[in-house]
Structure formats: structure tokens, C-alpha cells
């Protein structure tokens, strides 16, 4: 509630916009990789301000959206076990599995708890020694250090009834897969600042070196995003192709080695399935051998079944930036936030939900 | 009293039921109409038009910073009357009590109902209690109904907004929902946000004194500001433009929203109102609001346009715009 802040923000924004407009002398297609950016772009109305040559395309960076239905089914199977408490993040509750969702399971009396921090799951385990507590951990590099810390803490406190169903994914391998497939037409990337708080800049350098594409590690305030777009346009103007950090007030070039350290101690990279993108080498995280007694997939012998996408659903194409949500024939008719068909309509950070909520009739 | 609890016998209609009413309800709500204990309260009326409303309260937890289910049950119904410009004449209150509810909790809820009714200047003139077995309710549920008299010349409604109207809110938005959310402890959130829960009839009376021709009044409860604006834009077939930077939201409420992925424009309030006022009289109404204790932080947030009927356009501080849609398909906890 600070009117001066708003005025200053408006002035800075219009200055950045002038620069952007001056540099946008030919079309530039930019992918915002992360769902947090997608939502921030819609909420601040950035699409409505950009010159027509600058196009923003939403990418695969919504952890809930890229979780395959088969993994939701595994979590549901776990929640149905006698004496089980399943803890997970709120966004996952409504994601449809093959025949049910965690929300529907909870309505039939399964003990499923929504938590904000992975450490809360350890606390639940400690408070319920006669129950089995499993944390269904979905997320990217932003969440993995916290999940790793929870695993370490469970071990330190001797919580033998705690386990983890790991469904974590890594952003850079997915971007490599996206570009290697050669289907998407992009001129640069708005890269998620919070991921780089952990991983830093280096893991993105292949974008410039191998694919000749610029990237800017960008924050989430509207002005950050405008500046990120400006920096990408400036690189083109100056003939540079590199990874820059816009979000330097938070992101260090080397990231956070301590957070990466604890991640590496607890997890090892593993091939992982992505909804819409298929199996991507070394793009997921599994518990290392020393922690395998906490691996719910092993402990409860959970088979994985491949689930077909619902007929007509284009979430896979949306996640790769090949199709804009309104181009899907189910969008806004068969598929709405009240009754979602695909995961991109479920998560608050899903591109379909963002287009539906903020974009109808005003896609700028 | 500490160990005394509601039992099914309290709901059997016999001596214990009578004692419960005599001991707990009557002393709390005591007034001539209720004291008669007839099947109906009889209220003399002069007004040509009455406002009549009802609402049920099932909030969890029963107690939260800034209020409880009892205060909510009085304020909610008083506010529904006030949003029609009506002065409340009398309320009824029906209680569904769960077997095992402590009489201490019941007493506390009744006391805060008494307090809120006193603030609103209205009596609870009739009531009912039922007891259900343990597990069939969560502590207690309350249904209140109210009638109010609408002064001559006052015509307020969602369909009355006109192009040129100035839109104002009576204070920061979202406090109630965030206070209840934190009181639930589910997300281990801690903070000092208090519910805004308050009876608004006094504030509305002051506003009507400044301008009897107020067009629309709404209290943005479930669905929040966005839903109320959208409903008025549609009912009145006008456009609504809101300056995002002008919408008052406390930093702490913003912080929790960022954390949970909530949009503050959809948060529930229980003691705030949105007013659509003819441009000429906007200044006088705003001044009247700011003079009232419940409108100290009142402020203008936007205006009504002829263009874009049925749409709510939000101007963002960086100079962009986006549409504000009504609440759809989000999982909000039970908050009223």
C-alpha cells in the first residue's frame, strides 16, 4: 500500500517499454520457461503492452503440469493403503490421474494432507508414529533442496515411518530435449530466477553455445520481466548470444553450492518421464542408495503404468510451446478450471489455467 | 462450567432444552420481543419496503483473530441488509449444536453475538436450537435471518450502477480470509492479520446521509472484490475499470497470497463494502466513510464506463491491463 512505489513503477515500466519498442524492429519469439513467469506476465498485463513483434510463448516449467498421470496414480494407490497418511503440495490435489484425483480420494476418507513445506511431512510422521507417512514430492530445482533437507531431517529424528515418493524434475535437461526435438521455433529464453538461485548460470550455457540462443535469468516482478525482455532484445541488437542475469539482486552466478550440496548428497539424477515431453535422460531425481529405505516406490512396490492422454487434450503440445492454450478444441468448453481435462488447466501456474483466468477475450 | 458439554438431551425438547435456553440464550439476547418466548416475534413496521435475508455459518475454526462464528453470524446478516440500504429491525438465530460442544465455547460464541448485535443496534428476536450427535457437525453451525426497513428514496442494487459512477472500498481487502486461514494452522502460517468482521449498517447509514442516491453497495464476501465487481458490471450492463495500484491490500495479506498462489482480489471479507456512487457526490460519500471508524481507510479504486459492458478491466501499475474474471474453480477453504 504505497502509492509512490506504484508511480515509480509506472515510470520505469514506460521507459523500459520505449526501449523494447525501439529494439523490436523484427519479430522475436521468447519462451518464458516457468509457470510463475506465465502467471506474473498475465497478472501485470505485460502481453497487453508489448509491441506486436515480441511474442511470449509459455514453456514446460510448471511442475504439476509435467507430472504424468501414471505418477498421480501411484500416489493415489499409496493413499489407499491402510494406515497411510499422504502429504503433498496443494496444487496436486485436483490433478486427474487415470480414474481419480487425490481430492476425490480425500473426499472418500483417505488421509491426504496439504502442506507448504516438506518439513511439515516429517512433523506429521513424528506426530503419528502408528501411521505410515509418505510425502509425494513434486517440484524443480527450487523445491529439491527443501525436500533433501526434509529427508535428512527424517533420518536425524529417526522417523522410520517417513518415506518419499519422488517426482522431482530438472529444468535444463528438459530445455535440451525441447530444443533437440527441433519442433519449437524460439529466439530466446526468459529463464526462471528462482531455479538459478540454486543452480546458478552455468547449466544454461549450452543454450547459447550449442543452440545459439540467448537467455536471461529473470526475476518475477513485472519490472524484472520487462527488463528481461529488454536484455534479450539488446543481445540481438548487439549481436551477442549469451546467458545473462537480470535477477542479480538474488541470483549469484554460481548459484547456491550449499543447496546443491545437500541435493547431491540425498538425490542422484535419473531418467524421468515428463507429461508431453516423454522420457528425458537424467532429468529427474531419485534417492541415493544410502536413503533407499525411504523410497516409497521401492518400499511399497509401486508399479508404474503408462496412461494415455485424454482424447483431444493438447497439454503435451502446450507444454512444448507448439500450441497456445486457446488453440486446443477442449479449451474453455470441455476443459475448465472447474472441470479440468488436462493438467495445464489444473495448476494455478498451468498455462491453460492462466490463459483461462486472465486471458479470455484479451490475449493482447 | 469448564467440563460441561452439550449432550443429545439438550436437544430433546424437555427440561434440559428449556434450561439451556433459560441459562445461556435468554440472558445473552434479552429483549422484550424474545422474552415473550412466543412462536413468532411481532415487529411493528412503518416502512413501505422491507429487506429480508438469511445466511448460514459453518466457519472452521470457530474462533479466529478478530472474531468467531457468532460475530460472523450477526455481521453477515446485518451486512446483507445494509447492502440494500436497510436499517435492521430484527434478527433470528438458529443453532445446530454438536453433541460434546463445551458450554464454555457456546457461552463465548453467544457473548460475541451479543456484542456484535449491540454494535449493530439490533436484537435477536427469535431463535431455535437443535442438537445433533457427535460427528454430525463441527462444534456448532448458526443460521441467522434478518429483516430491515429501507428508507424512502433509497434504491440500491447491483443493476443500478451507471457510467461515470465512482467505485470505492471501505478498507483493505482480504484480512478476513487470511486471518481464518492462519487460524487453521494447516500451513504453519503465523501472523498478525485480524479478521475485518464488523457490522456495516452504521457506515452505510452515514454514507446514505451524505448521498441517498448511492447506486450499488456490496460486501465482498466469498468470491471477493473481483466477483462483486463482475456481478455489478453484468447486472448493470456497464464496464468497470479498476486501478490496481489503488486497491488497498495489506503487505502481510499480499505476502500470504504470494506464498499460496492466491489472488487477493478473490479473498473473502466480512466487514468491507464496495460502493458505486454518482460522480457528483463521490467526494462527500468518501468523506463520510473516512469519518466513520469502519471506513477510516476508505479509498477510490476505479470508475464505471459505458465501454466494455459486463467486463472488469484492471489497469496494472506498470501500465498494462487485464480482465478480472469472477472466481472460478479454485480451492478455497471454508471461510464463513
Topology of helices and strands:
The complex is a heterodimer of chains A (364) and B (336).
Chain A: H1 3-23, E1 28-34, H2 35-44, H3 46-49, E2 54-61, H4 69-79, E3 84-88, H5 102-107, E4 111-114, H6 118-127, E5 132-139, H7 144-156, E6 162-169, H8 171-180, E7 188-192, H9 193-199, H10 205-211, E8 215-218, H11 222-237, E9 243-245, H12 257-266, E10 267-274, E11 278-287, H13 296-299, H14 315-319, H15 351-359
Parallel strand pairs in A: 1-2, 1-7, 3-4, 3-5, 5-6, 7-8, 8-9
Antiparallel strand pairs in A: 6-11, 10-11
Chain B: H1 15-29, H2 32-35, E1 49-57, E2 63-64, E3 67-68, H3 69-82, E4 87-98, H4 103-120, E5 124-132, E6 140-150, E7 166-169, H5 175-184, H6 201-210, E8 216-218, H7 224-236, E9 239-243, H8 251-260, E10 274-277, H9 282-291, E11 299-305, E12 312-315, E13 321-323
Parallel strand pairs in B: 4-5, 9-12
Antiparallel strand pairs in B: 1-6, 2-3, 4-6, 7-10, 7-11, 8-10, 9-11, 12-13
Helix pairs in contact in B: 1-4, 3-4, 6-9
- Write down how many β-strands of chain A occur, each being a DSSP E stretch of 2 or more residues: 11
Describe the sheet with the most strands of chain B. 7 strands, mixed
The averaged pLDDT of chain A comes out at: 92
Estimated structural class of chain A: alpha/beta
Describe the structure.
- The complex is a heterodimer of chains A (364) and B (336).
- With 364 residues, chain A is of the alpha/beta class.
- Chain A folds into 2 domains: 28-314, 3-Layer(aba) Sandwich (Rossmann fold); 315-358, no CATH class.
- Helices cover 39% and strands 19% of the residues of chain A.
- Chain A contains 15 helices and 11 strands.
- Chain A has a 6-stranded mixed beta sheet, sandwiched between helices.
- In chain A, helix 11 links the parallel strand 8 (215-218) and strand 9.
- In chain A, helix 1 (3-23) runs parallel beside helix 11 and helix 7 packs across helix 12 (257-266).
- Chain A is globular and about 65 Å long.
- The model of chain A has no long low-confidence stretch (mean pLDDT 92).
- Chain B is α+β, with helices and mostly antiparallel strands.
- Chain B has 9 helices and 13 strands.
- The longest helix of chain B is centred in the first third of the chain and has 18 residues, at 103-120.
- Chain B is 31% helix and 22% strand.
- Chain B has helices at residues 15-29, 32-35, 69-82, 103-120, 175-184, 201-210, 224-236, 251-260, 282-291; strands spanning 49-57, 63-64, 67-68, 87-98, 124-132, 140-150, 166-169, 216-218, 239-243, 274-277, 299-305, 312-315, 321-323.
- In chain B, helix 3 (69-82) runs parallel beside helix 4 and helix 6 runs antiparallel to helix 9.
- Chain B has 2 domains: 8-150, 60s Ribosomal Protein L30, Chain: A, CATH 3.30.1330.10; 166-323, Phosphoribosyl-aminoimidazole Synthetase, Chain A, domain 2 (Alpha-Beta Complex).
- In chain B, the strands form 3 sheets. In chain B, strands 8-10-7-11-9-12-13 form a 7-stranded mixed beta sheet. A 4-stranded mixed beta sheet of chain B has the order 1-6-4-5. A two-stranded antiparallel ribbon of chain B has the order 2-3.
- The interface between A and B is large, with 45 and 31 residues.
